[in-house]
Amino acid sequence: MNTGISTDPRVAAILGALIADSASLGLHWLYNPERIAQIAQARGLVFLQPDANDYAGVSGYFAHGGKTAGDASAYGELCLLMLKHLAQHGGFDRIAYQTEYRTHFGPGGAYAGYVDSPTRLTLQKLLPLNPEQFPEISGVDDDQFAALAALPAAIVVYQGSVETLQDKLEQIVRLTNDNATAVAAARYLGSVLMAVCQGESVQSALSRCLSQADQPLQEQVADALQIGSLDTLAVAKRFGSACHVLQGVPVIAHILQHAGDYTSAIEENIRAGGDSCGRSIMLGAIAAAGAAQQGNPAKGIPLQWIARYRKLTAAADACATLSLYG
Description:
Elements: H1 9-24, H2 33-43, H3 74-89, H4 94-105, H5 117-126, H6 151-157, H7 162-173, H8 180-197, H9 202-208, H10 215-225, H11 232-239, H12 245-258, H13 262-272, H14 276-294, H15 303-308, H16 312-321
Helix pairs in contact: 1-3, 1-6, 1-13, 1-14, 3-4, 3-6, 3-16, 6-8, 7-8, 8-9, 8-14, 10-12, 11-12, 11-13, 12-14, 13-14
């Protein structure tokens, strides 16, 4: 039985993102759904200890050998970094955030793990500079999911007009991903999450907010939303399951359209394979916020999952500093 919690949708969105990433870590970048199904039958799907043997002989990339169950991927680290930044500064301070980003992910920083291309290339830009020299756009032309990882906390804190939020999201995205497709994905899913936090149903927001995306993304997501029942494997095969937002956002929208609760949404995402952690941030945020709005604990984040996330205290303290409880 899912003994979940009902909470403010803002807190649910943040915890939903962080916990979805952590839950997905054990099978991240495993691209073989058949192998994932075998593992699920033997050991389950969530909070698995990363094991190189799971990837042997099939398509995939084993990136998390130094991590343990309950840890975060680099996406989850980005999500928490932004949350802690907003709590410390009371809002977004670009230069301070770029400094914290460089310190956390750069040489000698607290982060230990796989560094993807946008992170590595952004660090190469920032490392030689003094903070006062940091450019307003420090990202690179890349549309991978690192672009969306820092967004949930910013969306929660900067709720208001869509225009104000969109400007803030674009600024944050271009700090790591100076790419129009990445910005379009942030505008779309950011608008969906804001609408859900403000009381709109997930299904309604997914359709209504399509106007915030550019034409290629609109067409992909619209096609995914027209599929009448949950078929995540077919959708992932059709649109792709790699790290690019144009592939992953339609999969996110399809799962949100049909999954009835947070647990089902996250497990479906893992079953799809590929960049499950990349998709999990905005998927988990929207699914958890939607469940909180319904006021049904059984549809929310399971308490068992919350307890297994290893950085829960840091996330909870930051939410308290931002006065998100109550």
